[in-house]
Amino acid sequence: MARIDLEHIRHSYLRRPMSDVDYALKEVHHHWEDGGAYALLGPSGCGKTTLLNIISGLLHPSEGRILFDGKDVTDLETRDRNIAQVFQFPVIYDTMTVYDNLAFPLRNRGVAEERVDRKVRETLEMIDLADWSDRKARGLTADQKQKISLGRGLVRSDVNAILFDEPLTVIDPHMKWVLRSQLKQLHRRFGYTMVYVTHDQTEALTFADTVVVMYEGEIVQIGTPADLFERPRHTFVGYFIGSPGMNVMPIEVEGLNAQLGKQTIVLPGAAASTVRTAELGIRPEFVRIGETGMPTKITKVEDIGRQKIVHLSLEGHDLAAVLPESAEIPAEPHVTFDPAGINVYAESWRVELEDR
Ligand code: ADP
Ligand code: MG
To answer: The whole model's pTM is what?
Structure first.
């Protein structure tokens, strides 16, 4: 296992990139701790696969360096980097048996047959394909093939890191949960450095201790699930994480006051005096509805079990509030924001507020 440093990585698929928009990765400067379990989360097209392929060596970055335990590997081939990678689309040998597919990465490295057998059988159990070991991979279902592909990534124990690129997309939800738990267990047992790519927040938040959120070729936040929820660094993180996502409204800031249309909201702290035109972010869980506060109109109420999502209109902006199912909504509803949930953004990035 290794610590992996990405130093000022930029990548463009164009031969002559002219400006930032030509870069699939604009600037990634980040390290993965030895033995860390990370989720790399972001929407389709934000650069996740590009970043993973740069780590494994399938792609040479246009700019920047990659270090494994301090050693520059930027110019090393994939096979010399000792990385296991599980691809989004299963890479397996159709004409080989399930067993031989898993044995392949080990035999390829001259591992003794006795050890190959032990590792392969162990892995087959893990991916729940022990009964299929003698079957040819051809003719297996898509999710079985994906499991083989996953198994091929897990069968070696001498790797610097294991990279998973959306490895469970075609697997049914229950099996997904089972496999994800096994990956977590493996991580605890062997301390692999793991990077798990997904566009699904639930997957990311349940797999990793640290979630790295990407947006348009940049890492916009690295944090625990709680950090991402409570203090989104970028409005994108606010929208993307949480269901429904964070409410974001335009405000004018003056000292402790934020002007939202005709309403004045007192901020939990003052922003720097340079911050004027800004945005207020508040998660639906921190929006309160009662008899006092800012007058509002309820537009829709959705029942989601023990809670309800109340959609409302405030100064012409659509807002969501999450309330307990039993919460009463007064005839003349008003909203207030719990100060603990108020974040201020300038140009989409979070602004630190001074303590009062
Ligand atoms: P993700 O894995 O997050 O969906 P990718 O890393 O695959 O994103 O893609 C990032 C951006 O780079 C996208 O705009 C995509 O269209 C572009 N891209 C990816 N692969 C190639 C390629 N081989 N050639 C040109 N552009 C590519
Ligand atoms: Mg991808």
So the answer is: 0.90
